[in-house]
Amino acid sequence: MSASHTPVLLNEVIAALSPAPGERHVDGTYGAGGYTNALLATGVEVVAFDRDPDAVAAATPHDRLTLIADRFSTLDQAGSVQGVTLDLGVSSMQLDRAERGFSFQADGPLDMRMDRAGPSAADFCNEASEADIADTIYALGDEPKSRRIARAIVAARPLTTTGQLAHVVRRAVGWKAHDKKDPATRTFQAIRMHINRELGELEDGLRAAERVLQPGGRLAVVTFHSLEDRLVKTFLRRRSGATPGQSRHMPDVSGRAPAPTFEAVAKPVRASAAELDRNPRARSATLRSARRTTQSPWLIDERIAV
Predict the structure, then answer these.
(1) For the segment 54-77, what is each residue's pLDDT rounded down to a tens digit?
(2) Which structural domain, as residue segments, surrounds residue 35?
(3) Alpha helices in the chain, H assignment, sequence order
(4) pTM recorded for the entire structure
(5) CA 142, 6, 291, 303 torsion: positive or negative?
(6) What burial class does residue 304 get, using C-beta atoms within 10 Å of its C-beta: 0-12 exposed, 13-18 middle, 19+ buried?
(7) Same structural domain for residues 257 and 139?
């Protein structure tokens, strides 16, 4: 595996999962197979998911690997397991291939679809209302100039390539080539997250992990920006009984707070200086992990406010 595909926080993820020979684990985001290969080396069976057909086609077969071409929100298909790991966001393979349309650093079709199905980024930019574009860029990209960018996108329609979109964004915010951060970063992130329904997928995947993990099973989630991390943090706080005004030791007489289904096993983990030297992609990564309790999964289906 090339350096660009080095799994982030690999040793820390494996330590959090504590795999034992004969166990069954889920890798919800197969990608280039980094976490899966490390798990297989410990003697476990792995059921891996990936919505990207390119990742599935490039996978190396293994007698203890079952690879499912689907979103990780459907990981109930794996049945009962002892571990679940999720490595969120866009993969290096997707970013490195201009024809997939994820990167503003190389011109390619304005696509960004992880599973190559459904509306593309071009469809969104060319068909959504100016208000919807602005709201998306603001909410998912934390972009303070979202309205100005949305107005520029609508004025420049039709947009068909990543280069065109990046140029529109840069011109809208008055970017200079020597500026430290390219302003297209936030807009591309927001549009990608929107068309792939990434936060909704994460919520559904966390609930699915709650359903399939056996008592004592381990969950490890690696996030790369604040929206993802906040969602995972909120989910685990609620499911561990650590939300304000709620005690993990006292029952909730209102009947609205089921018993905790997870317990935290470690503080959030971030990359060491040594890993950052080897793998700059790890700079924004955060690992959160938890262990499944014996309690039944929650039936409440509320959305997680982040």
Answers:
(1) 999 999 999 999 999 999 999 999
(2) 3-92+198-292
(3) 10-17, 34-40, 53-58, 92-96, 121-127, 130-141, 146-155, 162-173, 184-195, 198-212, 226-239, 273-278
(4) 0.90
(5) positive
(6) middle
(7) no
